[in-house]
Write a structure and sequence with these properties.
There is one protein chain. By secondary structure, the chain is of the alpha+beta class. About 15% of the residues lie in helices and about 30% in strands. The longest helix has 11 residues. The termini are close together. The structure holds zinc ion. The site of zinc ion has 6 residues, from loops.
Length: about 200
Amino acid sequence: MERIVVPPREGRAARVRRGQRVRVVDLEGAQVGDLFAFVAEDVGEYASAEHTRVAVGRLFPRPGEAFVTNRRRPILRFEADTSPGIHDMLLAACDPTRYRGLGVEGWHASCQENLQTAMASVGQTRVEVPQPINLFMNIPLDAEGGLGFAPAPSRAGDHVELRAELDCIVVVSACPQDLVPINANGITPLAIELLD
Ligand SMILES: [Zn+2]
């Protein structure tokens, strides 16, 4: 088993073979992980939350279902989840503009930059920034369709397990969002574990 630690506020990429299982672990709890997956042979095809919502007929993912690409092909199958099962497929990755809008002056780490840096580390310098699968992120909906920003309910050691349906590059960003309370305990590390 290979383990890649994703430091707080950073992102990491891992190459995953078709059939291989990958875990994303919340090491200390209450940390959102933005998950991206690109087809290895053509990074213009990637896991797409909006296409996945159509495929599964739901707003949020659950085990047994597959995340599909922007070409509607399964790329990662969601096989197991030890967390309370709260994940988001609605919100865009945080980016510099989002932080400026929240009043930040100067640079602030973001999932968009983390994705771009992680993909550059595996030789991919021009990639889309897809809408991520926001692991452990708690975005409750009210009856009028309003969105909340609630702390991630995941506990230390909670993880999700995915199986690759295509050879792909998986990126996980330990979301640096510290201006809304989604990362309750402050920004903490995650891990990517590559099994068999
Ligand atoms: Zn983020």
